[in-house]
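re: that chain from earlier
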Amino acid sequence: MTDDFALHERLEADTAFISDLPLTRVLLMRDVRYPWLILVPRRPGAVDLDSLAQDDLRDLFLEARLASLALKRLFTPDRINVGALGNMVTQLHLHVIARFEDDDAWPGPVWGAHPALPYDAATLEERLHQLRAALTH
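^ sequence. v structure.
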């Protein structure tokens, strides 16, 4: 990866680091309501999917699949939502969110449904440990 990669300040503030996959930095959104991963390609200047080379685009979707499978194994959600929105943060990032028919935002989107409900320290550490293990298997 390149040394020029820097995580957008909003992503830095709203997430916790899980791990680096070959292409992406994997982050956990700091909202205990939703098992919500964010994958950020470590490519400086990447804004949209067409910012990526073809091989990187393939790798992004393979890593999103890995994240989706990890969330399914850990949480048995009703759905996995995947989206790339850049309205608040222009740095290219992919949301991979485990959704449940009884979650606080169902059936609508999670964005803006409620203020984030932060993790307590112990729950955050346990969730990060679970996700790191699931992403390496």
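Residues 91 and 112 are 19 Å apart (CA to CA).
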